[in-house]
Amino acid sequence: ISGGRLILGIGSGWMQKDYDEYGYEFGTAGSRLDDLAAALPRINSRLGKLNPAPTRKIPILIGGQGERKTLRLVAEHADMWHSFTNATTYPGKAEALGRHCRDTGRDPGTIERSSGVEGRDPDTLVANAEALAGLGVTLMTVGCGGPDYNLGPAEALVRWRDGRARG
């Protein structure tokens, strides 16, 4: 369906309504992270047994910025990290991830970096995207706000991306 572009994005969850709707215990942020830590080896094992096999390794993206647990899980299990940061807060979180990578013997450069881009008007959005790109973020998202979706920020970000690709 996706031509091999599937990414498994996962985190510990933060919206209690989602847990309530499925009948799961919401718990605490720490208990949800512990549950995620327990599930990741099973998830990796199951992805390795898919039939038919995927066209490529399905990358795991872990979202979050908690320096003690979340970034340790990123260092141990993720191919990609969605940081939920901006250009001001990103460097400190990236350094924390780097420490966890060193502790686990992993090259932090093997983890692709992702972040949301703040800003509604095109100039602010592009300036923030440039700043994040300068810090090594290669995947960026932008909110379009539902239910009355405004795709203007996404269109501006795509124009910026395409302009950079052309050189």
Overview of the molecule:
- The chain is of the alpha/beta class.
- The protein has 6 helices and 5 strands.
- The protein has helices at residues 16-22, 29-47, 70-77, 90-104, 122-134, 152-166, and strands at residues 8-10, 60-63, 80-82, 112-116, 139-141.
- The protein has a 5-stranded parallel beta sheet with strand order 1-2-3-4-5, covered by helices on one side.
- Helix 3 (70-77) packs across helix 4.
- It is globular and about 45 Å long.
- It starts with 7 loop residues before the first strand and ends with a helix.
- The model has no long low-confidence stretch (mean pLDDT 93).
Largest sheet: 5 strands, parallel
Provide the low-confidence segments as ranges: none
Strand content: 5-15%
The strand count comes to 5
Q: Brief description of this entry?
A:
Helices cover about 45% and strands about 10% of the residues. With about 170 residues, it is α/β, with parallel strands linked by helices. Helix 4 (about 90-105) links the parallel strand 3 and strand 4.
